[in-house]
Design a protein that fits this description.
The chain is mainly β and 415 residues long. Helix content is 15%, strand content 50%. The longest helix has 25 residues, at 2-26.
């Protein structure tokens, strides 16, 4: 087994070395065409290559003339705001800039890719003009026809409200068990420059009967959430949140929380597509009615609480990073607290090699809903009830490596 591991390690090292050498050797070849690297996996590259055929799309940002970074944010209508950042790598007389465009919720995939491609095409013009190959092309513009019915619809009858409904159900039948489940959720949001209103309702029920052990697993979950956020300035915001929950898994027959929060963003909110660094503080009140008495021999828990959030998000040419640190505690008993940390990092190490890291860690000392009664074997095995725990840690790591020809503008959709 040890020899096999050594053999695989040596082969992997040789494989990566060949890839790095192959990439370096291709850099010697000269090319007068504009070299473009796009930092986005979800884009339709086949369509883009067909429409933008006057540049070379490369797979390594280190040898590109222009690096394009796409950032997407959901807007108030349920559509998407696309921020397209053009990062100048070799054209020193051209500063970095960002172009934005919005697509609608009901736009087709073709409409979305067409809009994004047109913006990329316009953004590449200043860089393309600096290449020697530009003299072989002639620019022509085609006026887009505007739908008169859409243009005349200037009044929003929904007043910025967007609704989304979803429901599903299913069943499962096996020799030793059978069951069913159903769910329903409703979203109602309104977003303006000053206000953001989010409402959410979710209902889920599941039942599974085990014939061999004569056990019925029941899981019911109901959750309703409402939040109103008001923009005080370019940096300050305040909001009120109310949510209620019923969960057999969490031993909560009915529980609700009300909290008021204040938030400060160290960057202006207009730059949220590039970076966010916020500090928020919330003061609230918890009220829990339990199915079974908790370990404090209570069926009802009422307590004031407060929370603090520190959030950082950055999108850069080297990758992107998202971090959040959260702390909360009950004010009537400071020994009941929770501290959590979550991070997602994507980092480009060298040329085609990138690494992604994800980590969630939580110190849990506020599970006052945990019942005092013993857990049955069936409840533990099926996960019917939340088990007590003082900590939670999960993480993942991934490596991506791409090498080979850095110039490949050919589209082949066969088979």
């Amino acid at each position: 087994m040890l020899n096999l591991f050594k053999t695989i390690t040596i082969l992997l090292f040789v494989f990566l070395s060949i890839g790095l050498f192959a990439q370096d050797s291709t850099l010697i070849s000269s090319n007068t065409r504009l070299k473009v690297y796009i930092d986005e996996n979800d884009i339709d590259f086949d369509y883009l290559r067909n429409e933008v055929d006057f540049v070379d799309f490369v797979n390594d940002p280190a040898i590109s003339d222009v690096q394009i970074i796409l950032v997407e944010e959901i807007n108030g209508s349920g559509g998407i705001n696309h921020s397209i950042w053009f990062n100048s790598k070799t054209k020193k007389n051209i500063s970095d800039f960002t172009l934005t465009v919005s697509t609608l919720l009901d736009d087709t995939q073709h409409q979305v890719r067409s809009v994004i491609t047109n913006v990329i095409l316009r953004g590449l013009m200043p860089f393309f003009n600096e290449t020697s190959s530009a003299e072989h092309y002639q620019l022509s513009l085609v006026k887009k026809e505007i739908d008169s019915s859409t243009a005349s619809e200037s009044i929003d009858k929904w007043k910025n409200w967007v609704f989304k409904l979803n429901s599903s159900g299913g069943f499962d039948i096996e020799e030793n068990k059978s069951g069913y489940n159903y769910s329903f959720n409703l979203k109602a949001d309104k977003i303006t420059e000053k206000f953001k209103i989010n409402n959410y309702l979710y209902i889920y029920n599941q039942e599974v009967k085990y014939t061999d052990i004569d056990y019925v697993y029941n899981y019911n979950y109901k959750y309703i959430f409402s939040k109103v956020v008001y923009s005080l300035s370019d940096h300050w915001s305040t909001g009120l949140t109310v949510y209620a929950i019923q969960s057999s898994y969490h031993n909560k027959e009915f529980a609700y929380t009300i909290s008021q929060a204040i938030e400060y963003n160290f960057f202006p909110w207009q730059e949220s597509n590039e970076h966010i660094f916020t500090l928020a503080y919330a003061l609230g009140y918890d009220n829990m009615h339990l199915y079974n008495e908790n370990y404090r021999n209570l069926l009802v828990e009422r307590a004031p609480l407060h929370r603090i959030y520190l959030t950082g998000i950055a999108v850069q040419p080297w990758g992107d990073i998202s971090l959040q640190l959260t702390g909360s505690e009950y004010l009537n008993d400071l020994s009941l607290y929770n501290i959590s940390f979550a991070s997602d990092v994507s980092f480009r190490i060298y040329k085609g090699l990138s690494i992604t890291l994800s980590l969630v860690a939580e110190s849990i000392h506020d599970q006052i809903y945990i019942p005092a009664s013993e857990y049955s074997v069936e409840e533990i095995v099926t996960g019917a009830r939340k088990l007590p725990s003082n900590y939670l840690v999960n993480g993942s790591i991934g490596l991506t490596y791409q090498f080979g020809s850095i110039y490949n503008n050919i589209v082949n959709r066969r088979l």
